[in-house]
Amino acid sequence: MPDGAPHTAPVFGLDNSYARDLPGTFVAWRAARVAAPRLLKLNRELAEELGLDTATLDGPLGAEVFSGNLPPSDAEPLAQAYAGHQFGGFSPQLGDGRALLLGEVIDRKGRRRDIALKGSGQTPFSRRGDGKAAIGPVLREYLIGEAMHALGIPTTRALAAVATGEQILRDTALPGAVLTRVAASHIRVGTFQFFAARGDRENLAKLTTYTLARHYPAVASAEPPALALLGAVTEAQAQLIAQWMAVGFIHGVMNTDNMTLSGETIDYGPCAFMDAYAPGTVFSSIDHQGRYAYGNQPGIAQWNLARLAEALLPLIDPNEDRAVERATDVLQGFVPAYERAWTDRMRAKLGLAEAEDGDAALALGLLAIMEAERADWTLVFRRLSRVAQGDASAFRLLFGNPAAVDDWLTLWQARCMRDGRPAEVRAAAMDRVNPLVIPRNHKVEEAIAAAVWENDLAPFEALLDQIQRPFEEMEGREAFVLPPPQSFTENFRTFCGT
After folding, report:
1. What is the DSSP annotation of 160-226?
2. Concatenated DSSP letters for 35-80?
3. Which of 74, 194, 265, 273 has minimal CB crowding within 10 Å?
């Protein structure tokens, strides 16, 4: 379709079950119109997965649609209501202050998935914010979401990024953008908190029924439904956080409004991947107390689940004491579920096929040395596969004192002998779970800076290409493999982008 030609709103095949089944949980709304939308990136693979027409959307029509100027003709745009604990303090009303749910599609695998705009202007929940987004945070979310997807971690994904032609005022004027996000759903712990805080048991019950049917149909008929939901979400979050920890991912803002009931990672604001292993690592500019540090993430997940349990208490049992007791029993399952999931992940990273009781201790022993020696999280595990094949030289060089890891290597090699895998099989299995390339923070910043200040998307495209193939060995990847200088990491901070 040539520039300047009239556009007709496409049909996405949206179902809009949230709008249909949950009245009272949202406000119908429209995106703010932007003056000069320009498509920066269409995720063609994802668009095809959703059954969308990539040929017509990858151009001017897509810019109009994904900016919010021309929503799909079958969309029912709405801003969802939710509350949330932010850094431990409760806000009874947050809601979509700069996002709109357009509706849901049933993708080619039969999965129901939300399509939503982020940065599409003010809504009734904006709390004096402008509701807009800048190009930098939009591209960060695109990159990190695609990296997590390539790593096999449940995540929301970016469908499109559109420049708006506007200047967004933050600390300085920045070029504006809108992200189109795809999620299993946008139902959060904070969604339940919103109705619980108002004593709105009717909508709380409807939301519980809807969430079970959408995400956990296998337990949807269990009694009481709210307790079944709490148990399913607890298990999903235990698995998700273990996956985060296994790749060194730091979410950065694990507020209850940023924890999904589906078990997907959502809201890539001040997130980052850790370089040198340090459990206290924090990159977020607003996390002054280190609440959401890398090592705190499992505990924060359990804390958030306790807030979900509090919201569900009236539906768990009419007797509050019994409801608390039953919810507590479920919540106490988080720690063993997480520890099992984490140990399974670490066992795979160490190349072990069979389980032994001492495997968690073996992994923790390596982590203690890594912390003391400031060894790089990603490269330590990746290069360990070379040790399995008989060459420990590159692995040992990752430690300030290479001899510090020798005793551990002796223990690990003895464990591998008991495991019985052939060396080449073990090494190949390790390389399938230990990435070579992650979105290194300095490369993400380079890509964002080039796009924002030079209108150059080439570094973004180059980084995107690399992180979509995290496990492959190939020529020319060295610049994306190595960590940044320590001087970069010491001064690096991430921002929410609001």
Report:
1. EEEEEEEEEESSSEEEEEEEEEEES---BHHHHHHHHHTT-HHHHHHHHHHHHHHH-GGGTTSSSHH
2. SS-EEEEE-HHHHHHTT--HHHHSSHHHHHHHHTSS--TT---EEE
3. 74
Whether 257 is a known active-site residue: answer yes
For the record, the structure tokens of 112 come out as 């129901």
Question: Of the listed 96, 257, 275, 287, which one is catalytic?
Answer: 257
**Axis crossing angle, helix 377-388 with helix 359-373, rounded to the nearest 10:** 120
Q: What is the mean pLDDT of residues 287-295?
A: 91
Tokens of 68: 């919010």
Q: Where along the chain do its domains lie? A: 17-183, 189-341, 350-498
Alpha helices (runs of H) in 259-358, residue ranges in sequence order: 297-316, 320-331, 334-349
Token pair belonging to 324 = 């608390």
Question: Beta partners for 116?
Answer: 101, 181
- In this predicted model, what pLDDT tens digit does every residue of 296-320 receive, in sequence order? 999 999 999 999 999 999 999 999 9
pLDDT at residue 2 in the model: 41
pTM above 0.85, yes or no: yes
